[in-house]
Amino acid sequence: xxxxxxxxxxxxxxxxxxxxxxxxxxxxxxxxxxxxxxxxxxxxxxxxxxxxxxxxxxxxxxxxxxxxxxxxxxxxxxxxxxxxxxxxxxxxxxxxxxxxxxxxxxxxxxxxxxxxxxxxxxxxxxxxxxxxxxxxxxxxxxxxxxxxxxxxxxxxxxxxxxxxxxxxxxxxxxxxxxxxxxxxxxxxxxxxxxxxxxxxxxxxxxxxxxxxxxxxxxxxxxxxxxxxxxxxxxxxxxxxxxxxxxxxxxxxxxxxxxxxxxxxxxxxxxxxxxxxxxxxxxxxxxxxxxxxxxxxxxxxxxxxxxxxxxxxxxxxxxxxxxxxxxxxxxxxxxxxxxxxxxxxxxxxxxxxxxxxxxxxxxxxxxxxxxxxxxxxxxxxxxxxxxxxxxxxxxxxxxxxxxxxxxxxxxxxxxxxxx
Length: 418
Description:
Structural class: alpha/beta
Radius of gyration: 26 Å
Order of helices and strands: HHHHHHEHEEEHHEEHEHEHEEHHHH
CATH topology of the largest domain: Rossmann fold
Shape: globular
Number of strands: 10
Strand order of the largest sheet: 4-3-5-2-6-1-7-8-9-10
Number of helices: 16
CATH architecture of the largest domain: 3-Layer(aba) Sandwich
Distance between the termini: 28 Å
């Protein structure tokens, strides 16, 4: 019997809501904590290569991009950052490579874990969480496996009871937060219905009032996790009425090209006429923000019912297409910077054509004044060609540097695997 069968059918598990060995037995809890605190040394060469890759994008490519006046300059830079983040995540969990990411974002208490459990039809994620216990969690199709990536660079296989212990009960009992020990969790199950998708349950970017005194890193963690997303579902509590300015301000700092489905959760607590009004008003507000909106809808995780169309399943179907199938991170890199490739090709061809045309006019010109003007123009074009050649050489060097670093990271990652 697999762990999902245990979760859904096993009578023993039904009792585990009241009986969990990590909650009931301090010695078991201590063993779990001890395992999570073990340190795995990252190979120095791999660490240096990853650091250099980040610097290449965040410093060298950003500085290079600043030399151009291109409409998509910011979008290109954000896409490059996303690729770097995905590479880092892939090095933690190799299975993440080659999939599309749907991240579930929103404020604390929006009901993200309960929403995900309801949508995929599996009781996988602990729903009774607080800001001290919430950990970013990946859900994907694969062999039954639960693993945690710790802040000490250890990938640790954990069981269903450990996953279920990620609740406020553990914090209340031992005054120790899993969110301080675990960077993210990977849940694999053959029952996950989407072959090409990875769902990412992110911590709420806001804190409940009772946790305001703690260091507020939630917003940073949420933004870091959402940055790797190919698609976003933004979950909102329908009690808020319409989407909040705080939500919109946070979303504005994410990549503008990522399709977003806005979902009001807990829709069953409102009359349908009020749900329709909230959705309609939110559509109007969002339409003025220049976001890539897939749709706005409302859902009840309790009743597993959508109230404003069939956006959710359509969004999952749209995202589940093998958009990245067969693509390596090098391919994604090439795709992200293709605008620069086009720029250098078109600009170079245009300048050479202008130089040729002005050169031909110079050979036929008899008037001294006209000859002087054409000579100045020819010289100006020649100077621009020289500038473009210098920029193109810098561009080629950056591309080569990226390729070499990727090759090195690939080889070092393989060498580090057990």
